[in-house]
Amino acid sequence: MAMNSSVNEFILFGLTQDPRKQKAIFGVFLMFYLATLLGNFLIVVTIKRSRTLGSPMYFFLFYLSFADACFSTTTAPRLIVDAISQQKTISYNECMTQVFSAHFFGCMEIFVLILMALDRYVAICKPLRYTTIMNRHVCSVLVILGWVGSCIHSSAQIVLALRLPFCGPNVIDHYFCDLQPLLKLACMDTYVINLLVVTNSGAICMVSFIILLISYVIILYSLRNYSAEGRRKALSTCTSHFIVVVLFFGPCIFIYTRPATTFPVDKVVAVFYTIGTPLLNPLIYTLRNAEVKIAMKMLWCSKV
What we know:
mainly alpha, Rhopdopsin 7-helix transmembrane proteins, 3-stranded mixed beta sheet, 10 helices, 3 strands, 3% strand, globular, G protein-coupled receptor activity
């Protein structure tokens, strides 16, 4: 428990207090969560077992799907259970664990998206050196660096959270523990800590988004030298990546790059990047990718 804190548990307000809406939330988000787990599980297993999906792009997609499943698991089960339970309490330690894990897997998703953009940049802009530059050893080191970077980011977040004293009230106006709603409950001046949160999470979101935008602009510019068929295939892949980037970074930038103010719409926006993006990623990457669809059919039809 934090120093100078008299609160040992919090009450999560959730998305709504309306009993009928809560039942709908339980049903809808349970289906969303199960679909997320199933979709990402299919991609992870298909890439792991398939001999045709051995390129760096699918190596990174494997880790994106893994991060998606874990990221959704940090928030969705609590939202689903709280929708039908009378006691919507979460202990202080569980709350801090949720802050750490949500930021860890969310940051990992950001780093993997950057690695996927880097992979497409090398494949399209330096095709002759692609296999040399993006070999398996380099890809593994890049993913490890992503894990380390995520751990540093989430550790910084949890250090800030642990410094907050709570004297009551203990009702978090959100469906999961995050620093912004916790800052509202802290019985201290949180201006400096909020500044650090914006500097940390906000900067990661903005800088990563700008890097990704620049990389895709360079990729699109490089495609002018390709044949019509080559452009079509490259554009299809890059469009999938870009859709995922916009869906994830739009809500993140809205939440983490502003002063210590919260809006009622924040919870709905948070649903997009904590539950919506992990659900949509498998659909985007399978429906728009012929290689993944063929590999899935071959693998799962042979199993059946």
